[in-house]
């Protein structure tokens, strides 16, 4: 399963696809093919085989972690003699643009909801905590949208703090990919889930530590488990360009779309535009902010060009 040498000091156990798939054991398949079709993003090639070999073992592991955490929480209650509200288990899903974070988050939500000890699972993306475009324009940050400085970090940290404290309900702002902006006065309410999945580009970002020693919370401080979706840079670029070409004839074609101006581009022009955006913005964000957080994740899913996960790395306990 795992090849190690005497010099191997990696904090991760690395599994081939076949070895990881065997960890499913007798975990039942609870999703129908039609559900899998709805869960995947347009450029992903998620199929039942990927669910069975990658995500079912992961959902089994997470269900064990959740159960252990719930038992620990109850033990602490007994020790302290308290009756605190239940503490939600928070899972972070991070990685580059076009890596497939959204699909992974939706699949985990669907699978975990079906475990008997986890009746309520919610999912949010950190997109809703981006500053509105008007603010980004004013601050000269539109070209840095998706970078850590483009998020309302205090609002996101307050949201996660309220979730962990068991407050109900907690509201998160809503983001529209059509208009490429936060929707004013629109919210989604999260009401004390057993599990909350938080998906976003920079969810594992640590930031700079204070010199005075004062506590500074990071988003990842609230995570009980975190997943990083990994792929080589040339593969990510090819997926991004492919998605851009598809959107040109779908979402971009809507006159209300922020990117409607790209709908009439030729194939050549679209490839050039997508590559330019990738190199100017997404690749820089990947190098400076996202990739350095990869080894902070509890689990790394390494994808190949086919979109399938080829290797799984699980942090040692």
Question: Could you describe the 3D structure shown?
Answer:
It is a single chain. The protein is an alpha/beta fold and 317 residues long. Helices cover 37% and strands 18% of the residues. The chain has helices at residues 17-21, 33-39, 48-80, 101-113, 133-138, 153-164, 233-248, 267-290; strands spanning 12-16, 89-95, 121-125, 170-176, 181-190, 195-199, 225-230, 299-303, 309-315. The strands form two sheets. Strands 1-9-8-7-2-6-3 form a seven-stranded mixed beta sheet. A two-stranded antiparallel ribbon has the order 4-5. Helix 7 (233-248) packs across helix 8 (267-290). The radius of gyration is 20 Å and the shape is globular. The model has no long low-confidence stretch (mean pLDDT 90).
Structural class: alpha/beta
Number of strands: 9
Per the principal axes of the C-alpha atoms, what is the gross shape? globular
- What is the makeup of the main sheet? 7 strands, mixed
Q: How do the SSEs run, as a string of H and E?
A: EHHHEHEHHEEEEHHEE
Q: What is the CA–CA distance across the termini?
A: 17 Å
Level of helix content? 25-40%
Mean pLDDT: 90
